[in-house]
Amino acid sequence: MESADTARRRAALDLAIIGVLADGGLRRSEAAALTWGDVELWADGTGRLTIQKGKNQVEPATVAVTAATARALRDIRPDDVDLAAPCSD
Length: 89
What we know:
This is Tyr recombinase domain-containing protein. One of its GO terms (molecular function) is DNA binding. It is a single chain. The protein is an alpha+beta fold. Helix content is 40%, strand content 15%. The chain has one domain (4-76). Strands 1-2-3 form a three-stranded antiparallel sheet.
């Protein structure tokens, strides 16, 4: 049985993943390729993702994320974030 902290962390990660997929209309592979360097979280509570490689995409694309998704990303973002690290670790 997982601990309460592990369950909360897993739930926060699930919310962030679902939000990123829904807000950005991303494919699984595009979401999995995101790093923390691709995530901008703004003071107004929203943010933006930069999609480096997408299907049929030549240039990076940016997509806005809602306040709920930005909050979920803030909840899972490590304090000592490595910008090249995958968002899902």
